[in-house]
Design a protein that fits this description.
This protein is of the alpha/beta class. The protein has helices spanning 18-30, 41-51, 60-68, 106-113, 120-130, 146-158, 176-190; strands at 7-12, 34-39, 77-80, 98-104, 134-139, 161-162. It is built from 7 helices and 6 strands; from the N terminus they run E-H-E-H-H-E-E-H-H-E-H-E-H. Helix 6 (146-158) links the parallel strand 5 and strand 6. The radius of gyration is 16 Å and the shape is globular. The structure holds flavin mononucleotide.
Length: 203
């Protein structure tokens, strides 16, 4: 894997925090990273519940352009069906550098922790772990049960970066976009990219 990822799989699942997901996709595209996007059924529901019908998967390119000024052709952003376990990204032979699941539901977290590969998001995550590629998991739930906490430990032990959806407040955010910028900045940084979505703490 190159230090700077050129191609990243993004999984969006049915946990709260769709804004983090679209902000992350926009930041990756802005950094000229090719994105292979997979959205679970509940991920699709959360996109429209939290951001409106204009953020539906089949309208996402227009949404990213309107909200973030990002222009993405099909060579930059490919959308795969979560049921398509035959997609290229389901194989270790695919030239992907890294993967992020944002937000990550407790169900998908469990699936990744136990290597279930029930759908393309879980399978691509399994591939990232077995190929020793960077896998960033952004879980969101509160409070958390012991099985959920244990599943995060299992993922971390397998090599994943567990980056909970926990925006900080020392940057004095005033808008939801500030919170999303912080989380997306943390994610792209964890994926190996330089981030300029929020300023570093300077003491
Ligand atoms: C409005 C709404 C919000 C939800 N928020 C969360 C959440 O924050 N975390 C979570 O683990 N599940 C949440 N769920 C439940 C998941 O969507 C559900 O467990 C689903 O089966 C996850 O499937 P997926 O991982 O394939 O997307 C939410 C569901 C709905 C309808």
């Amino acid at each position: 894997m190159s230090d700077k990822p050129l191609r990243v799989v993004v999984g969006i699942t049915g946990a709260s925090g769709a804004l983090y997901a679209v902000r992350t996709v926009a930041a990756l595209l802005t950094a000229s990273v090719r994105v292979d996007l997979v959205v679970s059924d509940f991920g699709r529901r959360l996109l429209t519940e939290e951001l409106g019908t204009e953020a539906a998967v089949d309208r996402l390119v227009a949404y990213l352009a309107a909200r973030y000024g990002v222009v993405a052709g099909t060579e930059a952003l490919a959308v795969h069906r979560n049921r398509d376990l035959g997609a290229a990204i389901a194989s270790g032979t695919s030239p992907c550098d890294a993967m992020v699941i944002v937000p990550c539901s407790m169900k998908t977290l469990a699936g990744v922790a136990h290597g279930l590969s029930r759908n393309l998001i879980e399978r691509a995550a399994d591939v990232a772990l077995k190929e020793r590629r960077r896998l960033v998991i952004v879980p969101r739930e509160t409070p958390m049960s012991l099985p959920q906490l244990r599943n995060m430990v299992l993922c971390a032990e397998a090599g994943a970066h567990v980056l909970p959806a926990m925006p900080a407040f020392y940057q004095r955010p005033t808008t939801l976009d500030d919170l999303a910028d912080f989380m997306a900045g943390k994610i792209v940084s964890c994926l190996g990219l330089e981030q300029d979505l929020f300023p570093a703490w300077d003491g």
